[in-house]
Amino acid sequence: MADGGSDRGDGRAGAGTDGPAADREPGGRPGSRTDRESAGRSGARVDRESAGRSGSRADRESAGRSGSRADRQPGDQSRPRAGDPAGDPVGGGSFLPPAVEAAWGVRERPSKGPRPSLTLDRIVGAAVSLASIEGLDAVSMGRVAKELGVSTMSLYRYVSAKSELYVLMQEAATGAPPDHLPPPGADWREALAAWAWAMREVYHRNLWLLRVPVAGPPATPNMVAWWEKALVALEGTGLDEGAVLSVTLLVAGYVKNEAVLTADLAAVVAASDDPPEQVMTRYARTLRRLAAPEEYPAVTRILDSGVLDIADEPEDEFRFGLDRILDGVAVLVAGRGAAS
Questions:
Q1: Which residues contact 167 (CB under 8 A, 6 or more apart)?
Q2: pTM for the structure as a whole
């Protein structure tokens, strides 16, 4: 057997097999198996390591950068923001949670697999309905899941936390600003007043919105659209961008604060089961009994005037405050115009 193997080995090797016996394997194969395997290992390793050092890491990283985004599933990363020269996904440097990115259309849910029984719109709609009927405190992930007839954990595929759900509820309830804002041909004051009244209407239509914690600056499509309308209203005033932003925040803050106060007072009146005028009269009578004139002379003058015995319309109070704010802005606009 060994000789046969030697003969076959010599026949295969031909003339090139002549050499010292020490170079042959037992059985006559030219070159030992150990030598060949050692050479093969060392040569292959050198070749692989050389190729790996020279190209693999750079090639892999380059390929990873250029191709990985395209290879990912739609739900894994955001689509690149339009106009972003680097093409980086919004999710890479965005402070927005995934569901809010989905509201902008820069993140898609995975399309593979069975069609889900839930959608983000269904979840948000159920939460808004619950808040409208029972108030914001009634909204929880578990309660919304119960309303939808699903498990609580199934909601987390779409919304990561209740705070994120709040943002989406606010977006849905606020809606897009009316197309007529600012009114065509209106000056800045008329345009900004129209914006304030429209925003007030949104709050009074959805009083639970007033209890949503502030999560940051406007960051959803509808909220940014409302912001845009206010900024556009102030175009042509001559104010710089910083002043325009400050005026917008001032008016927006006034609108929300007035809505909170009006809603709270309305809740007090509703809880008493008495007409607003009777509630105010009872309040004034109580205050007269408690506030001594010598200690509270200014309050006494207000009480004596009778103004607290009359329940003013909330719209009248809002109009008065808004006009005074806009009067101040008009002084600022006039001053900037004179300076320029």
A1: 97, 100, 215, 219, 220
A2: 0.68
